[in-house]
Specification:
Blueprint: H1 12-16, E1 26-28, H2 32-37, E2 45-47, H3 50-63, H4 69-81, H5 83-107, E3 111-112, E4 119-123, H6 130-140, E5 146-147, E6 158-162, H7 167-183
Antiparallel strand pairs: 1-2, 3-4, 4-6, 5-6
Helix pairs in contact: 5-7
Length: 184
């Protein structure tokens, strides 16, 4: 992508703008790309006719706050030059995914193992609610997981773990979960 022809614009403008009824424009919220290269910073963007994007950007500036300029520029840089890091990051997350899947299998916990994310959704064991199990893990194993219900009612019966922590911390957390479940 040639960053000289792209003007970053926040997604909000597309949601409420009359413009969206008359043109087709590519809108994205690249939550994985910037967070791989710039953790905790995501930057939605639009790509299309330069004049239309500039007009939308001017509109956006006047209706709400946008993403901090430094984050927009860093996101453009990451999109332009970040490909060389992607294989390395995929390798890291794949290694962590395999570690977690093997550990949960040994614990008898069923896991939904999607291929396009650095999160794993695991079934709550022992018939507890998602929230009760997550609280129990925090209190007994000192491991923080996210109750599935944090993402809505269909998350009940599941908890989510992140593969974004370093390998040694992930292995430690999985060991603590295993030990806590054995003592239960």
């Amino acid at each position: 992508m040639d960053s000289t022809n792209v003007v970053a614009v926040c997604y909000d403008v597309f949601r409420n703008s009359i413009i969206r009824k008359f043109i087709i424009i590519y809108c994205a919220y690249p939550s994985k790309i910037p967070s791989i290269i710039l953790p905790s910073n995501v930057s939605p963007f639009g790509v299309g006719n330069k004049n239309i994007i500039e007009a939308m950007s001017r509109y956006q500036e006047n209706v709400s706050s946008g993403v901090f300029n430094a984050i927009q520029l860093a996101s453009i840089k990451a999109l332009d030059e970040g490909d060389r890091n992607i294989d390395h990051m995929v390798e890291i997350y794949s290694r962590r995914r395999k570690l977690a899947l093997a550990s949960f299998e040994k614990m008898g916990i069923s896991v939904t193992a999607g291929m396009g994310t650095f999160y794993l959704w695991a079934a709550v064991p022992n018939g507890l609610s998602s929230e009760d199990f997550s609280t129990w893990l925090l209190e007994e194993a000192h491991v923080l997981v996210t109750a599935g219900t944090a993402y809505g009612k269909y998350g009940e019966g599941y908890f989510r773990i992140s593969l974004t922590v370093p390998d040694d911390r992930l292995a430690e957390a999985l060991g603590r979960i295993r030990k806590a479940l054995k003592g239960k």
